[in-house]
Write a structure and sequence with these properties.
The structure holds three protein chains of three kinds. By secondary structure, chain A is α/β, with parallel strands linked by helices. Chain A has 18 helices and 20 strands. In chain C, a hairpin with a 1-residue loop joins strand 1 and strand 2. In chain C, helix 6 packs antiparallel against helix 7 and helix 13 crosses helix 14. Classes of the chains: A alpha/beta, B mainly alpha, C mainly alpha. Chains A and C meet through helix 2 and helix 3 of A and helix 10 and helix 11 of C.
């Protein structure tokens, strides 16, 4: 098959972009045929987001051309890109919180009827258009954002990590709708870290590495290997290497749990959750989005207070009124959102040393050499690339996440609470983080790890608990914690049952209803 | 503005671009150097337009005038680092100076100063509680507190009308006197204060926390910092510094009035901004602020020595703030 | 509220629901109105003579600050702040007064139009500086407050000038009924003619959008820079209107800015506009201005020292904002 320039719906060639001294894109190219779903792949910092921003006019390239249906275009702004048929949907919904949905549609000049149609297709019925966006649950907002984009029938729809924070059931819906767009005369550019999704809906994949297009792959069975190879620029190692002495540690009988959670409840999200976390283990937490895991971690980290239930650390009851109390009790928290955890304009060193100076008695002069020693050790332990140590915001996403962990490692960890610490970071850093968590456990620390990537449970955890509807519904030994088993448990299906279509659909509906009801009641 | 920001496109030639990057980096990492250069330029300009004006006496005059401004700009620097601002410094400074002048006759200087500092701290404490505990926007809180202090000072003026003394000699000595007519006595107060702030911001846990809270309050909280403690203390410190500045201003002008330091408020913000402290928090320092205060003082003196009317001075003053702040933003912006 | 209209035009919504939604969305303003009513009754109780003249005096003295507060509200809603409003008022007021002095009545019309254009221009300069330099609004407008005040001094060194008779008549006295002061009508008409159409247009949505979430607005295709510029131009326009109302009230122009800038910020906050942007409207700030002015005149009547009245203003400002944030904290905790 020969593809000439005019057959292409979208063609970007020789696109480059530098920010000061940082090269975000060296020479990227992307060719999208009409009717295809095209994956854009690359490790963190490979330049995917920059390329999407350039295509939607949010960023202006230094060099390169962009042609839509064979005609060269210069897009100066998202508004212009929109008129030219290029529309993007991001992980963060682009809806204005203080406007109602109808005004949001007016703002983007979206026709209402097609919008309603796509909303129904995506499984969101009964949306009151006069409700403020601020009051709509986040997952629904993401769906609304997608429906809004679909409603204006763009030539090229870009989904930038759109599914990364969607609950599994909604992700399925999205994939289904995206899959149906195949074969028309419009196309979709699909960005996701999840190879499964790529395999499910994409026709071809363009792989970026260090700002360059390094290959275009036809997505077929087994092409994942090839994609990962291209992304890494070397043979696949990474995640398959399970650290020494990982799984299946036996908890000695009669040991005191580091952390005991008994009957913990919070609002309508968390009901009567109970479990134990022992020293020396990594305990996985698995849940669909919105099952109460956010609240659980917030309570353990001292950010929120439970309405009922008790917490015991090393057998004695504790109650946290502030994160400082949790930290004093040895519970430290690593957030998924690095923007929540880092002082972006400050140095790596100040970020790592931050917890040292928070208590009033440490407000005085700093012991600089002692601090340097602890910080340097932490940097070495986590292998942080400190070439841009002056300001954390200039580090890559993976390195930033390492800094948030290093902060606690530097102080000596007893109990670490990790909430999806590998969200949106590249494979190599992911595996480094898992190795680190294993090392921490090996040295006697207790680690509680929530991850949205089910297959990683077996790589890092000793056992896993599953939360559904705010309750701990299952505990699974690591040997049995393969993806299908976890997924069934996460949908609260019995482990011996297969998951027939209609049952799955029911579970989805149930989970949805629970989440929506919870969101409603919260307000 | 992240998404809206467009980087200045790189010229194709390699060398000039590298140089530009080097310059930008220099300005970003050592912002005080270009500020000093600007100061030197202004001094040179003064000499150029009024030959002979730059002499030790002139320098002494500039320093004497700049010291109270630099202290008040210190209030802005510290509060701006946390993403706040302190618009009550004018009222607090005036009120403190005025209180000392009215009390010194009956109570003696020490008691008068102590009383003024205590009153100022109380005002600062209330501001700090409003901002830190009740999360009132600092702009509003300090604005309201300024009104309260100003009103109370006026009321006090009516009460004390019969005993109203003048600025005590000691304050005149420290505010407007100088060694050999050159080195102002006010440096005796200012130098130790400035050293404490400069070192405190870099080398103490409290200083680090000011930056941390301004940069990312959520991160600071998750790391165990209780922001309200930091904020409450901060506004007390700021009020005490304002009181000290008020003493110096009343000594400098030999006037004690309830509106004495009002005209310093906006310039104090301007000095901190020119000195490179970001009003959004998390970035800046006191060194730049001191230079900023000197720059403003030299500009004002230059303009008045040229005989420009007040109107032109104000226009130029405003234009310079915008220009410097814009240059600053350009240089430090992460494009 | 930006989208109050949307609730009403929803075909499916029953009238009762719509009314409830209206009350919920405008709760703060309605509360202020209720407070104002109580305050009026109280005023009448302590000053039995308070009547037509009192209301007219109130309307006239409120007008400049009310217009300034509307201007401030617009820029705050779109996520900015304008600390140069007072100076712009001084500048437009002295330009109007100095040009009108000794000129014919018809000439005055031209002057008024020119001054309004000047307001737009001043706002445009403020806005372009904010957009182009990317310096925070608060810094730019603070600096520009010096510039505009300096310009005002260049135009008139001391208070002076004059005003066309028709301009003065425009805000003096009453119309239709002696209880309806002209100044209040002027305010309503100005807001109805300038702000309401804007609020209902896509520009209005964009103003709320950039104040609410700038990145989302940008991604929704809103031109952030242009919208911000528009918000400052509107603020400049309202500052010019406020300046003209000063000239109309006093018959002269005063080159030294009054306390309007900071008071307008206070009124905006009291009026339920979030300093974070995106929330609120212009009705709340107007009611807040009336309340503040009425409180002041009550205290004067009660022979409260004016200085203590200043203290009271500060305490009210702090108290109301603390109350608001307490409610928010409660809600967040519940």
């Amino acid at each position: 098959m020969t593809v000439t320039g005019t057959d292409l719906l979208l063609e970007a060639t020789g696109v480059s972009k530098t920010y000061g001294a940082v090269v975000a894109l060296k020479s990227a190219s992307l060719a999208v045929r009409p009717g295809e779903v095209h994956a854009l792949m690359g490790a963190n910092g490979a330049g995917k987001s920059t390329l999407v921003k350039i295509l939607t006019g949010a960023v202006h390239p230094d060099t390169g051309t962009i042609a839509v249906r064979g005609r060269e275009r210069v897009v100066h702004s998202p508004a212009e890109a929109r008129r030219g048929g290029l529309v993007s949907v991001y992980q963060e919904p682009a809806l204005i919180p203080d406007l109602d949905i109808r005004s949001n549609l007016r703002l983007t000049e979206t026709p209402i009827e097609p919008f309603r149609h796509w909303l129904r297709e995506l499984g969101l019925v009964d949306l009151d258009l006069s409700s403020m966006a601020r009051r709509v649950p986040l997952a629904s907002l993401r769906i609304i954002d997608l429906a809004r984009a679909l409603a204006i029938e763009p030539d090229v729809l870009m989904l930038d990590e759109m599914t990364a924070a969607l609950p599994a059931n909604l992700t399925e819906k999205v994939l289904e709708v995206v899959g149906r767009l195949r074969g028309g005369d419009r196309s979709v550019i699909f960005i996701s870290h999840r190879l499964i999704e790529i395999a499910a809906v994409c026709d071809r994949a363009t792989v970026l590495r260090e700002g360059e297009t390094v290959g275009v792959v036809d997505v077929t069975e087994g092409s994942e290997e090839r994609i990962v190879e291209l992304m890494l620029g070397q043979a696949v190692e990474a995640l398959s290497a399970q650290p020494e002495g990982a799984a299946g540690r036996q908890i000695p009988a009669g040991a005191t749990p580091r952390l005991t959670v008994r009957g913990l409840s919070h609002g309508t999200k968390l009901h009567d959750a109970s479990f134990e976390l022992y020293p020396g283990e990594v305990l996985g937490v698995v849940a669909l989005e919105g099952q109460g895991q956010d609240e659980l971690f917030n309570i353990l980290a001292g950010s929120e207070r439970p309405s009922e239930g008790e917490l015991l650390v090393d057998g004695s009851p504790v109650s946290f009124r502030h994160p400082a109390d949790a930290i004093r009790a040895g519970l430290v928290y690593v957030a998924a959102d690095r923007a929540e955890a880092l002082l972006m304009q400050r140095s790596v060193r100040e970020n790592i040393a931050l917890p040292f100076t928070t208590r009033i008695r440490s407000w005085g002069p700093i012991d600089l050499s002692g601090e340097r020693k602890r910080v340097d050790t932490a940097i070495a332990t986590l292998q942080i690339d400190t070439r841009a140590r002056g300001e954390v915001r200039r580090l890559s996403g993976g390195n930033q996440q390492k800094v948030t962990i290093a902060r606690w490692v530097a102080g000596g960890v007893r109990t670490m609470l990790c909430f999806d610490p590998t969200r949106g970071i590249d494979i190599r850093t992911k595996s480094q983080i898992y190795v680190l968590l294993r090392d921490l456990a090996a040295s006697g620390a207790a680690v509680l790890l929530y991850t949205s990537e089910l297959k990683e449970v077996q790589l890092a955890c000793d056992r896993a608990i599953v939360i559904f509807g705010g309750r701990v519904v299952a505990e699974i030994a690591v040997e049995d914690a393969d993806e299908p088993a976890l997924l069934r448990a996460a949908y609260n299906l019995r482990s011996d049952a297969r998951m027939p279509e209609h049952l799955a659909a029911e579970a989805v509906a149930e989970a949805d209803a629970a989440a929506e009801a919870a969101a409603e009641a919260d307000r | 503005m992240s998404g809206v920001a467009s980087a200045p496109s790189a010229p194709s030639a390699r060398n000039p671009w590298l140089t530009a990057t080097a310059w930008r980096r220099l300005f970003r990492d050592r912002p005080i150097l270009p500020l000093l250069a600007l100061l030197a330029l202004l001094v040179a300009l003064s000499e150029l337009v009024r030959p002979g004006i730059v002499n030790p006496n002139w320098a002494g005059f500039i320093l004497r005038t700049a010291v109270p401004l630099a202290i008040l700009a210190g209030c802005q620097t510290l509060t701006m680092l946390t993403g706040g601002i302190d618009l009550s410094v004018g009222a607090v400074a005036s009120g403190s100076g005025f209180l000392v002048a009215t009390l010194v006759g009956d109570q003696g200087l020490a008691v008068a100063i102590l009383a003024a500092v205590v009153v100022a701290s109380l005002a600062g404490l209330l501001t700090g509680i409003g901002v830190g505990v009740f999360r009132v926007h600092p702009l509003i809180m300090t604005l309201g507190m300024g009104l309260v202090v100003f009103g109370l000072a006026n009321w006090w003026q009516l009460v004390m009308v019969q005993t109203g003394g003048g600025t005590p000699d000691e304050l005149r000595w420290i505010g407007s006197g100088s060694f050999m007519g050159i080195v102002p006595h006010s440096l005796l107060v200012f130098v130790p204060l400035a050293l404490v702030i400069l070192v405190g911001l870099r080398r103490t846990g409290y200083g680090r926390l000011l930056y941390a809270i301004g940069d990312n309050p959520v991160a600071a909280r998750l790391s165990g910092a209780r922001a309200w403690q930091v904020i409450v203390l901060l506004y007390v410190i700021s009020a005490v510094m304002a009181a000290i500045a008020g003493f110096l201003v009343s000594g400098l002008t030999n006037v004690a009035s309830v509106t004495l330091a009002d005209s310093y408020v906006l310039p104090s913000v301007a000095a901190a901004v020119i000195g490179g402290t970001s009003i959004m928090g998390g970035r800046g320092g006191y060194g730049g602020t001191i230079v900023g205060a000197l720059i403003l003082t030299v500009i004002i003196s230059l303009l008045s020595s040229l005989g420009y009317p007040e109107a032109v001075r104000q226009v130029l003053f405003g234009a310079i703030i915008v220009t410097v702040a814009a240059a600053y933003t350009r240089i430090t912006a992460e494009s | 509220m930006s989208a109050a209209a949307a609730a009403v035009d929803d075909a499916r919504a029953r009238p009762a629901d719509a009314a409830m939604a209206f009350v919920r969305r405008n709760g703060w303003t309605l509360g202020l109105l209720a407070f104002l009513a109580v305050l009026l009754v109280y005023t009448r109780a302590i000053q039995p003579t308070y009547g037509v003249t009192g209301i007219q005096g109130l309307a006239i003295s409120v007008l400049p600050l009310a217009l300034a507060s509307v201007g401030q509200a617009i820029v705050v809603i779109s996520g900015g702040i304008d600390l140069s409003i007072g100076s712009m008022m001084a500048l437009t007021s002295v330009v109007a007064a100095s040009q009108m002095k000794g000129q014919g009545e018809e000439f005055g019309v031209g002057i008024v139009i020119a001054v309004l254009a000047l307001g737009l221009l001043l706002g445009a300069i403020n806005g372009s500086l904010v957009v182009l330099t990317r310096v925070p609004d608060i810094v730019v407008t603070l600096a520009m407050s010096f510039v505009w005040a300096g310009c005002a001094l260049l135009v008139l060194k001391t208070p002076g000038g004059g005003a066309a008779v028709w301009l003065k008549e425009l805000v003096k006295g009453s119309l239709v009924n002696e209880w309806v002061p002209k100044a209040a009508i002027a305010l309503v008409i100005i807001v109805a003619v300038i702000w309401l159409p804007v609020q209902r247009s896509r520009l209005g949505l964009s103003l709320y959008a950039i104040g609410s979430n700038q990145l989302a607005a940008f991604r929704s295709g809103v031109s952030v820079g242009r919208t911000k510029l528009a918000s400052y131009m509107l603020t400049g326009l309202f500052a010019a209107l406020a300046g003209l109302s000063l000239t109309a009230n006093t018959g002269i122009g005063t080159p030294v800015p009054g306390p309007y800038t900071l008071t307008s910020v206070a009124a905006v906050v009291l009026g339920g506009v979030s300093l974070a942007g995106g929330r609120g409207g212009v009705a709340g700030p107007i009611v807040a201005v009336v309340i503040l002015q009425l409180l002041r005149s009550d205290m004067t009547f009660l022979n409260v020292n004016t200085n203590l009245a200043t203290v009271a203003n500060g305490v009210i400002l702090i108290g109301v904002v603390m109350f608001g944030s307490l409610i928010q904290m409660r809600r967040a905790r519940a």
